[in-house]
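We modelled the chain as a single entity of 158 amino acids. Its sequence is:
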Amino acid sequence: MEPLLQLLKQNAHAPHSDLARELGCTEGEVAARIAALESEGVIVGYQPVIDREKLGKEIVTAVIEVKITPERGGGFDRLAQRIAKFEQVQSCYLMSGGYDLLVVVEGATLQEVAGFVSEKLSTIPGVISTGTHFRLKAYKENGVSLTREEKAERLAVT
């Protein structure tokens, strides 16, 4: 990945002056490159990494393994795009291995997520089976550690 994108992944709000200094170029070059990456669709958005435990609002996240029947002439794409349009779906990926799609879903309660899986996702023609895993705790999100390491206090040696 290009160095500018690496820096933006670490801090999308970094001033262009800091990015330019880090990359050894001018602020204008940084601004032009970011604009080009956005117009080319390489950068499609900016999002904060949120520590939900500190937010004080419960959000239930589930990772769902979905097996589907590929469609003639469309493969997995049409069905995956249909699933991705649900507002509960945060991410949807085509996978290799024992299942076809990995779907990340969020809801206010466990029952809401379970209802989505049983009433909406599982009833779509072409969906063969689902396997739901609920997130219990996050330690790292999008490359950012959510845990603070406690420094062990050492006693002075006398």
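As a brief sanity check on the tokenised model: DSSP finds six helices and six strands in the chain. Residues 3-39 form one domain.
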